[in-house]
Amino acid sequence: MQGVMRLRLSVMMFLQFCVWGSWYVTLSTYLLALHFDGVAVGGIYSTVNWGAILAPVIAGMLADRVFPAQNVMAVLHLAGCALLWWLSGVTEARIFFWGLLAYSICFMPTLGLANAVSFHQMSNPARQFPGVRVLGSIGWIVVGLVVGYGAPALLGHSIENTNLPLRLGSVLSLVMGLYCLSLPHTPPGSRGRRPTLSQALGLSTLGYMKDRSFAVFTLGSLLICIPLSFYYSFANAFLNEAGMPHAAGKMTLGQMSEVAFLLLIPFFFARLGVKKMLLAGMAAWVLRYVLFALGNSSTLVSLLYAGIILHGICFDFFFVTGQIYVDNAVTHAQRASAQGFIHVVTYGVGQLIGSWAAGAVVEHYAYVQDDATRHVWQAIWTVPAVMAAVVALLFVLFFKEPAKARALPAARAHPA
């Protein structure tokens, strides 16, 4: 792959995650400022998970059968541009839910399509893709710094509880949509063949559930994603309510940690193996929630920072190691299908349940003070901490380490 092509794909990844990171992190803070209750906010976040479930179907119907992937991406991002701008003016929870669901159905397929465009241009994806994909994490960091620090410096006030992140996302979606039209041609991968719903969702992977370790891993992945959703949905609202300035910008420390630990995955994998790394990831989630429950924005602010920085271990040691395990557990021909299946199980079903559960818990511990809704965050964070601890314990008891796990090449220790 030539340097110019690498640059074009890197810009694509950068913009792709700028779009997502611009509004996703701060959305709960904005919705609570609109006086949406916790259940409504959790439900609205669940639209992203519905989008993850439907993404393989949308991509399978369009990019795999009929249209070039870059053109499908362009149309979806341009539609997303209009939807995000419209949503920035919506103040009724039910309408916001359906509007963001429509947006998520547009956006989530573009994550896989961006990968497909990249892979089509690469002669050695295992070596070349990580260097392109890391620009996505950098894009998330940059836009988080813009929302957390740049915009307040320019406007003189925080924008995290306003509709401006949604409008920023809309503008970035417009830029991304137009940029997609310039991307290299990526023809449909299955022209003339009609992929079934089962193929799109990777349901052929269910045959591997006969293996106890794979079944425990799949069920554990689904269950652990329920408490994980508490962080994705409400961490920014918590930090703002706790009084941490520039919360969105400081949360990018988590993505910086993610990039650093991604580089260390091969080192730890060779020494710890699958089971210990997965357990380390689960334990990090428990610790993160304990730190959030105990921390505050004054004397114990270091605990909040530690909880944020743990994101590298939380994400890489569980999700990336899980991708490596799945890659090794199935046949070469079924790797893509199996990865799609686990994606639906985790980002789709698991976090879908988790988004609603998080909303219900946050609403249960809400109270009114000085005409503003506050929350008993210590109790809120205790709930996912206990959930994650129980899942980790069950994983210790029932998951058996594959004998060949440590023999994996380091090149697979990167998210695909």
Give a verbal description of the structure.
This protein has 416 residues and is mostly helical. It folds into 2 domains: 1-189, Growth Hormone, Chain: A, CATH 1.20.1250; 198-416, Growth Hormone, Chain: A, CATH 1.20.1250.20. 75% of the residues lie in helices and 2% in strands. It has a two-stranded antiparallel sheet with strand order 1-2. Helix 6 packs across helix 10 (247-294) and helix 10 (247-294) packs across helix 11. The longest helix has 48 residues, at 247-294. The model is unreliable at 407-416 (pLDDT under 50).
Helix content: over 70%
How many strands in all? Answer: 2
Give me the Rg, rounded: 20 Å
Name given to the CATH architecture of the largest domain: Up-down Bundle
CATH superfamily of the largest domain: MFS general substrate transporter like domains
| CATH domain fold name of the largest domain | Growth Hormone, Chain: A
- Spans with pLDDT under 50 lasting ≥5 residues? 407-416
Count every helix, treating DSSP H or I runs of 4 or more residues as helices: 14
Widest β-sheet, arrangement of strands? 1-2
Q: What is the highest CATH level, the class of the largest domain?
A: Mainly Alpha
In this structure, how is the largest beta sheet organized?
Answer: 2 strands, antiparallel
